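FAQ: What does the model actually see?

It sees only this:
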Amino acid sequence: MPRIILMICVVSMGMATESFSQKKKLKDFFKFKNKEIVAFNPEDTIVQIEDDFFAIEDAYWDSLAMQEEVSLERELSLMHEDTAEVVLAYDVPVQVTEQLMIDSVWVTLREYYSVWSTTKVNPYKIDGEKFADTLALALTFDNPSLDWSMPIPKTVVTSPFGLRRWRWHYGDDLRLTIGDSVRSAFDGIVRLAQYDRYGYGHYILVRHYNGLETLYGHLSKRLLKPGDVVKAGDVIGLGGNTGRSSGPHLHFEMRYQGNAFNPREVFDFKNHTIRTTTMIVTPETFSYLTEARKIRYHRVRRGDTLGHISYRYGVSISKICRLNGIKRSSILRVGQRLRIT
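And it is asked to produce this:
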């Protein structure tokens, strides 16, 4: 399986009348200007890149046509040698240029790597409850080919997305046996692969080319690392029962800009297929957040401790103390109400 360091390859273009065979020094396809990316088309007309699917505008398609017409001295590798080292203000230094080619899929820095974290599930700081747009996200794509796969073939949902007792469940739990293969739902790149003792257990999060992300939790084994390139259907881990789990299952989440939404808007788990090839994201997609964020309380019973309450609700002791203005050493009274969300 190919592996990358988070990089974006510099792909250069000359004038439309120039030939690649002339082996002249080509212009950079993308340039930085005031921290915004602008594209230079073959006529050297500045075109602001929009936030569309792959967002490369006409210059991208022109470049593909030119590449088909001429033969290069050697085939482009996954990573071009001409790179520039840039330290992003995220978690770890990464080596970045301005464009990345993966299996003929072109991804721009602004569209794909503008926010990239190898430690946080949601680094985007975007409130889904305030989402006001309507946009279409292609789930499959013919040229270049992007496909889909069931995360577990022929499985059933054992616990759906939604309110589960006292807290919101942000994904679908899918039945499996420990050791079953768990597969990537779409083509993409692994952004996170780590262990969460009190939550997901061993889990992997994959960033997909349309901006969606999928998360696979409670694995018994992770088979990939951040930066690994995956195709739909590739095995990314083995099913398990790690983390906060009451039995073997796959916790499967789908997210857009860090905000989870119901996976069954995309997948028909009963019939083992996808519902549509294009997902329409609207404010209604995240309307559940109003209910999910309602304040909930726990009424202290005899024998309760902060540790017991913390484990029961999956909320840290420090958060319970902060929400209620108490200390870890505070004595709990029977009948006392403690805010937990």
